[in-house]
Amino acid sequence: MPLFDNIAKAAKDFFIEETSPEGPSVAAVNGGRPLPGSAALFATAASSPASPTPPSLTQPEQRHLDHIQGLLAGDGKDFVAYTKMVRSLQASGLSGPILYQTAFNAFTAVTGLDLPALLKSADQFEIKLTADRNQILERHREKLGEIRIAGVAPSTLVQLQQQEQQLQLALTELARQLEEKQQQLQATRQQLQEQQQKAAAALASYELAHAAAATELKAHRQATQSFLLR
């Protein structure tokens, strides 16, 4: 937010006390104990098991970034607003404990938020992120068909899986029918070949009988003509 960015730029010179020979000194807050880093906000999400990242994925989609940004939206007096001030001061060259102490001093001066309240705000954002991730994972499992949620229609992915199974069953049945028809075709071809061979053998047999009869008949006719028509 522009307000906190401007305060952070001014806070670098306003809140840092004079350095001593032993090192930099900052205004005492919470007994001078360094404030935890902003990474604590995402500790829960980072430590929980994550789904395998697709090899081709190098950065999150904008819609997911917008979704997370919406989850982390606050009233400007919370831990997320504080982290914005930390990043602004970090860009100006500060780092380590002095960075977080200076940011806390500036943030407290504007919001009146003490350290316990600030850390409680961080816990609330962590809980919010964890709850949202659990909900997303549940929806993801439902999309994959691993679980069923009452009152929720099957996802497009589940419908495609069901269609794939139906087509696979139909293909298996067609393959079975094709195998059966191939066996029937082979048996029919064998029967056809046998019948063709029988027909050819019958014709050959007939031709032999016919030739013998015709030859004999011709011989007798010639003999008759030769002996009886003198």
Overall description:
The chain is mainly α. The chain folds into two domains: 2-152, no CATH class; 153-230. 70% of the residues lie in helices and 0% in strands. It contains seven helices and no strands. α1 (2-15) packs across α4 (79-91). The longest helix is centred in the last third of the chain and has 73 residues, at 156-228. The N and C termini lie far apart (143 Å). The model is unreliable at 12-52 (pLDDT under 50).
What tags apply to this protein structure?
230 residues; mainly alpha; 2 domains; 7 helices; 0% strand; rod-shaped; coiled coil
When the domains are counted, the total is 2
Number of helices: 7
Helical amount: over 70%
Unreliable stretches (pLDDT < 50, length at least 5) are 12-52
Order of helices and strands: HHHHHHH
Shape estimate: rod-shaped
Strand residue content: under 5%
In round numbers, the mean pLDDT is 81
| CA(first)-CA(last) distance | 143 Å
The number of strands is: 0
> Which value, in Å, is the CA radius of gyration?
47 Å
| Structural class based on helices, strands and sheet pairing | mainly alpha
Major β-sheet annotation: none
